Amino acid sequence: MRRVDRSWGGSSLLEFSVLASGSSGNALYIRSNQTQILLDAGISGKQLQQRLQQSTGVSLDGLDALLLTHEHIDHVRGLRQVIKQSRAQIYTTEGTWNQVGTPVEPDLKGREVHTVKAGQAFSVGNILVTPFAVSHDAEEPVAYRFDSEGSSLTVATDLGYVSDSIKEVIAGCQSYVFESNHDVNMLRAGRYPWNIKRRILGDKGHLSNIDAAIALADLLGTREVDVYLAHLSEENNQPDLAELTVSSVLREIKDSYGDQVRLHRTGRHQATALHSL
């Protein structure tokens, strides 16, 4: 029987670390006092193990669940290694599993793959997970909101726009890991071919810095909120520019938003510090 270290405290409030974020790979770790979840596995198993250990002190073999958002390689690169090195239950939409499941099914060794449907919440241990549909160029992509004992986190990346129905699902969270993919001017002037630029700018592409700020303004209540700017383009964005743009647009919408929102960076090569809600 595996030994799972639950020594991080008696509270079921959520903690999380963004292990990797960007077009080269995405993964995020979430835990309560009872449950450990990995959201996406877009870097190698070795990198996941190293970053988990460095940022949280845990390892892959303690995971209870692996949730997938969609099938793009920067979200599933390490899928097979995670399945082999952990006993995590797999949660994914049918469309995503149709794209990634066949090569890894022999490694499941009898584990059930749980089908996720947008709008149908489910529990993993004492964490309530609410998947919601997003507009992206994948077969059946979703993003997720996580709730436990009054603490709440939404992870929303890889979407072309934030619809009113999404805003209803994710409004009022304490923390957001939110896409701020590109600066529109940098993208338009950059070296990408036009068909790629059109994809990124389209409804099934990625949020710009300005798009992110406008959407966030509709989600804020009156309390302070932590926002991790995620999935920044290495080619068409810069961390300083993303922070400045999001902060400036929020202040233009309502001056108090500039102080209410605490912005944080994520990166490709290093996990963020463990954040407690």
Summarize the structure.
The protein is α/β, with parallel strands linked by helices. Helix content is 31%, strand content 25%. The chain has a single domain, classed as Metallo-beta-lactamase, Chain A.
Could you characterize what this model shows?
- The protein is α/β, with parallel strands linked by helices and 277 residues long.
- The chain has a single domain (15-270), classed as Metallo-beta-lactamase, Chain A (4-Layer Sandwich).
- Helix content is 31%, strand content 25%.
- The protein contains 10 helices and 14 strands.
- The chain has a 7-stranded mixed β-sheet. A 7-stranded mixed β-sheet has the order 7-8-9-10-11-12-13.
- A hairpin with an 8-residue loop joins strand 8 and strand 9.
- It is globular.
- The relative contact order is 0.15.
- Residues 1-8 have low confidence and may be disordered.
Descriptors for this entry?
277 residues, alpha/beta, Metallo-beta-lactamase, Chain A, 7-stranded mixed sheet, 14 strands, disordered N terminus
Going across the major beta sheet, what is the strand order?
6-5-4-3-2-1-14
Q: Mean pLDDT, rounded to whole units?
A: 94
CATH superfamily (homologous) name? Ribonuclease Z/Hydroxyacylglutathione hydrolase-like
Tally of domains: 1
Please give the CATH architecture. 4-Layer Sandwich
- Number of separate helices: 10
Biggest sheet character: 7 strands, mixed
Order of helices and strands: EEEHEHHEHEEEEEHEHHHEHHEE
Distance between the termini: 31 Å
Name the beta content range: 15-25%
According to DSSP, the number of beta strands is 14
- Which outline best applies? globular
* CATH fold title: Metallo-beta-lactamase, Chain A
| Helix proportion range | 25-40%
| Overall SS class | alpha/beta
Radius of gyration: 18 Å
Query: What is the CATH C-level name?
Result: Alpha Beta
Model regions low in confidence, pLDDT < 50 over at least 5 residues: 1-8
